[in-house]
Write a structure and sequence with these properties.
Rossmann fold; 35 helices; mainly alpha
Length: 742
């Protein structure tokens, strides 16, 4: 885009250029930063700081243009380019075009503190203030552009303000936009790629808001893990665009948008103010007679670097944004605020309050003492929060009789809870999900009776599918080993325990089977799953086997396991019971030869369109193909792609460090092999609850089903109001989601 702008500027006639040069105070001064460090609109410069105006516009038009465009064109902010292009299109390179661009640049550079007062224009239609251009319709004030070309206020400024964002608070940064990042083509990266910036989210919302919102909800409905930064950017982008309807509806989705996302979004919008405060502080230190410590300056400059990466090219925590956040806190219930007070660090609320300026009683009507509590004032003595602060091993059972204390706060005292307390907890917890989540802590016959009663009364379970599988595995082990929970010599007690465990197990099994029947993975078939059963997988073998077996059942896939050689499972899993049986009986041993799982498909030239490799990627030995050639997985897979079929490959990797890529996946990345994706599990603490995220990833990756879901929801957003559709979706997901405690 910048190249087309450059070409348009080159079309300005020499007389027009000379006319602009004749201004008493040339607005071209603002454009001098084109050649300052190769960054367009450097935010650290002030519009009155330029001293090289004459040098910039000296000589003829061609000399000026050569200097003007002597910078890195890839480091330009995309929003600025679009505005510049739109101005050129409107003015068709008339004499005012260059001055108009200059005026825009100076607008983007203006440095204002939050609030009203300084910053724009005097004259008709102005808001008052100092420091800008005088003239009819301008927003200027005193001290900058005078003469011809400065009066662009009128219709253009009004259009500019309505079409984009509040220019009063704009800050400009240089952003490298991904060439292939397009909300219309593929909206998924906006919510799963942590490298996507706030500016890019703003641009996506401005380009196609119905598709943007539809993508967010479709991914969430498919259990794809949406990054915390992405959620914060979505909220902050709505505020930057003054789309408070969207922002308010996002805040209603309590599972997706929590205090963490709200605070992060506010910090993004407040980054510009904090940045200016740090810059002023550094300036004072540098001008002081006492030389500041290098470490002090270093920390400040590091904070400035972080803030520069965080802030957007526009937006701030305006009074309107603060009021909407205050309205959000007024919707928080007493139960939610008590949970925050008991379990969450108060620092987050203090940071938010410092920016938004809450009223303790007006903005937290459900619990007026909550905000003072966050700042150190003790909770009232008669409240649960105050009493729970004095919980001990000795009084925990007495306090449970008096208060309905959330179990997550009692967990630290689990070894001191008696059976009556456990049963009371199981009875008063709002959702049965919480009791099942912490079942190993609370298990006893009384709790089993409460669970059975709640299930018989029709209470539904909304645990994520992965957690449900983990609970089933636990219940099956407890059921099959009753001696761990009952005295060996009391056969009657053992039978009673086994019966209660079996009752819970049977019910959860039916729930899991129902969920399994609904899972559709539109992977290209045939599918083959290869499970790593080498010794290095010892910690994760059960999780890995469950994953391999589950995917086999869902996709009707072929399944094999391997260590130094490939071996077939005792049976092919068809249902949940089979999956659990296989997980409990498969053992890990031997070295790791990942190619062993693939070699039979290669030797037999059997067409498989999707391979799923479940492994820790610690490949440490070769295998031999039918012709005796030693090989490892990467080379064999590449030969398979070229000689048999260009199959897709999915790595389910159990890694010790979540930031590692894995040695095998890295080989494919370095070779730029297409259609290879990876999903990570913690190799030391494998978490089955991530199964939902895995299934979501697989179901949305290049899937026509996902595209159909997205298009359907997008059409609904386009045909009806966004607020009505979001209300329906939020209500649906709120009813089917686990408790906040879980």
């Amino acid at each position: 885009m910048i190249f087309s702008i450059e070409e348009s500027l080159r079309q300005i006639s020499i007389p027009d250029f000379n006319e602009v040069k004749s201004y008493t105070k040339p607005p071209l001064a603002c454009l001098s930063i084109f050649e300052d460090g190769g960054i367009l609109l450097n935010p650290s410069k002030k519009v009155w700081d330029w001293t090289d105006d004459k040098r910039l516009i000296s000589g003829g038009k061609n000399d000026f243009l050569e200097r003007l465009f002597n910078f890195d064109k890839n480091s330009i902010n995309n929003h600025q380019l679009e505005r510049l292009e739109s101005i050129l299109a409107q003015h068709e390179c008339e004499p005012d075009a260059l001055a108009c661009i200059s005026f825009l640049c100076s607008k983007l550079l203006v440095v204002r503190e939050r609030g009203r007062g300084r910053g724009y224009a005097r004259g008709p239609g102005s808001r008052g203030g100092r420091r800008y251009a005088r003239g009819p319709g301008s927003r200027g004030g005193r001290g900058y552009v005078r003469g011809r070309g400065q009066s662009f206020g009128g219709r253009w400024l009004q259009n500019e303000r309505s079409d984009s964002m509040d220019v009063d608070d704009q800050q400009t940064v240089s952003v490298n936009f991904s060439a292939d990042l397009d909300i219309n083509a593929d909206p998924k990266p906006f919510f799963v790629d942590p490298k996507v910036t706030l500016d890019q989210h703003i641009q996506a919302q401005m380009t196609n808001l119905p598709r943007y919102v539809a993508a967010l909800f479709t991914l969430n409905e498919n259990s794809v893990e949406i990054g915390q930064k992405a959620k914060a950017c979505a909220l902050a982008a709505a505020w930057c665009r003054h789309d408070h309807t969207l922002a308010n509806n996002l805040l209603r989705h309590r599972q997706l948008f929590t205090l963490t996302e709200v605070l992060k979004a506010v910090m993004m919008l407040d980054a510009g103010r904090q940045l200016r405060a740090y810059e002023k502080q550094i300036k004072r230190l540098e001008l002081s007679k006492k030389k500041p410590k290098a470490t002090t300056l270093g920390k400040m400059k590091n904070n400035i670097d972080n803030l520069n990466r965080l802030k957007a090219s526009t937006g701030s925590v305006s009074g309107a944004v603060a009021r909407h956040i205050q309205r959000w806190t007024r919707t928080l219930t007493q139960q939610e605020l008590e949970y925050f007070a008991l379990h969450m660090p108060t620092e987050s609320w203090k940071k938010l309050a410092d920016v938004v300026h809450f009223n303790p009683s007006k903005d937290f009507p459900a619990l007026p003492w909550f905000l003072p509590f966050c700042f150190g004032t003790p909770a009232p003595e008669e409240t649960m929060v105050a009493r729970c602060r004095t919980l001990t091993n000795e009084n925990v059972n007495d306090l449970i009789k008096e208060f309905k204390i959330p179990y997550s706060h009692l967990k630290q005292f689990k070894d001191h809870l008696n059976d009556k307390s456990k049963a009371r907890i199981a009875a008063y917890e709002e959702k049965l999900d919480t009791i099942l989540w912490y079942y190993e802590d609370l298990q006893c016959p009384d709790v089993d009776d409460v669970i059975s009663e709640r299930l018989e009364n029709g209470e539904e379970i909304s645990l994520p599918y992965g957690k449900l599988m983990e609970r089933l595995l636990l219940l099956r082990k407890l059921r099959d080993a009753p001696s761990e929970t009952a005295a060996v010599d009391n056969i009657q007690d053992q039978n009673s325990v086994q019966s209660s465990k079996n009752k819970c197990y049977s019910y959860l099994l039916s729930v899991a089977e129902g969920q399994l029947a609904k899972i559709k993975l539109p992977l290209a078939s045939p599918v083959a799953v290869m499970g790593d059963a080498s010794y290095s997988m010892d910690v994760a073998i059960r999780t890995a086997t469950i994953l391999a077996s589950l995917l086999t059942a869902v996709c009707s896939a072929k399944l094999n396991f391997f260590h130094t050689k490939m071996f077939l499972p005792a049976f092919t899993p068809k249902n949940i019971e089979d999956v659990l049986t296989l997980a409990l009986t498969t053992k890990a041993h031997g070295l790791t030869a990942n190619a062993a799982g693939l070699v039979s498909y290669y030797d037999n030239k059997e067409i498989i369109k999707t391979f799923i490799m479940v492994t820790d990627e610690i490949e440490n030995t070769d295998v031999h193909t039918a012709d005796g050639t030693p090989t490892r997985f990467f080379n064999l897979f590449m030969k398979y792609r070229s000689e048999v079929y260009p199959a897709k490959l999915v790595f389910i990797s159990f890694l010790d460090n979540q930031h590692d890529q894995g040695q095998m996946y890295t080989e494919f990345l370095n070779a730029n092999v297409p259609d290879v994706i990876q999903f990570k599990f913690n190799g030391q603490r494998p978490d089955l609850t991530k199964i939902d995220n895995l299934l979501g990833l697989l179901s949305t990756d290049s899937s026509q089903t996902f595209s159909d879901q997205l298009e359907k929801l997008q059409n609904e957003f386009e045909q009806s109001s966004i607020e009505s559709i979001m209300t329906s979706l939020i209500n649906k997901q709120t009813n089917n989601s686990p408790s906040n405690e879980v």
